[in-house]
Specification:
This protein has 268 residues and is of the alpha/beta class. The protein is 47% helix and 9% strand.
Length: 268
């Protein structure tokens, strides 16, 4: 099957067909589905909050870290989410905190730190820095000072490189020594999570040629245990195909054809 056949928007005529639900999976509009990644991130956050120390969660790209953090913050008003990136330094961390806390921003970094500490002291709140691995080297310094003096927890979340950074670079020793919870990095999500995401996001609307454990193990291998590969790359094409061909079942051959012809990846 060629890419144009897979991606075509024109459905095959089915005059007697029952109208189907219009299920769309688009970036920014995907509902949260709980996974083991989300559970472990929640545990890391609670450990940091309860003990007023640092916790670290590191995992591979595309396993759902940011989605899990955003949902955690929605459900827990005490959590303060900071967004990291290659441009984020200690100054930007302070400015984000001032904005989140409703504190007037100062051009003087020590004054910002002082005001943040005063606002957060004994508040039982939690600071979460996403994409911590991408931030500039001095980005974590003010968080250490704020955590110590305001007695609030901090959770650092990032790719697996975050572990190497914290453990191998001397400047991060003061951070690493304050970490109270540091689970082993997660490279993939589980087979069960792949199955849960598949069924719930498609609303169990796809007909599979094989619904055995072997199928889900194979699909997990096919998407490399990656939530993003499944949710953003594969499922939209399966839903489009199913809308055109309600009488056809989804099988390994068709999934492989999507990866080969649309996503430029070899069959397995």
């Amino acid at each position: 099957m060629c890419p144009t056949e897979i991606l075509s928007n024109e459905p095959e005529p089915e005059p007697d067909a029952v109208p189907q639900k219009n299920i769309q999976i688009r970036y920014g509009q995907v509902p949260f589905i709980n996974t083991n990644v989300a559970n472990l991130i929640a545990m890391a956050c609670m450990q940091a909050k309860d003990r007023r120390r640092f916790s670290v969660f590191a995992g591979g790209a595309g396993i759902g870290k940011t989605k899990a953090i955003e949902e955690y913050c929605k459900q827990n008003e005490f959590a303060i989410l900071l967004n990291g990136s290659e441009q984020i330094s200690g100054v930007q961390v302070l400015l984000q905190l001032c904005q989140k806390l409703g504190i007037p921003k100062s051009r003087n970094a020590p004054r910002n730190i002082e005001n943040i500490i005063y606002t957060l002291r004994d508040s039982d709140r939690l600071i979460i820095l996403d994409e911590a691995d991408k931030c500039k080297p001095n980005a974590l310094d003010p968080l250490r000072t704020i955590s110590d003096h305001a007695m609030v927890g901090v959770t650092l979340v990032g790719n697996i490189q975050l572990v190497d950074k914290l453990r191998s670079q001397e400047r991060y020793e003061l951070i690493a020594s304050r970490v109270c919870f540091w689970p082993k990095p997660m490279g993939q999500i589980s087979v069960e999570d792949i199955q849960s995401l598949f069924i719930k996001l498609t609303q169990n609307s796809l007909t599979l040629s094989d619904n055995s454990d072997k199928w889900w193990v194979w699909l997990h291998k096919r998407v490399e245990g990656n939530a993003r590969e499944l949710v953003e790359n594969l499922l939209p094409h399966l839903l489009k195909f199913d809308k055109k061909n309600k009488h056809k079942k989804i099988d390994r051959l068709f999934v492989n054809s999507i990866f080969a012809n649309v996503l430029n990846k070899p069959a397995i």
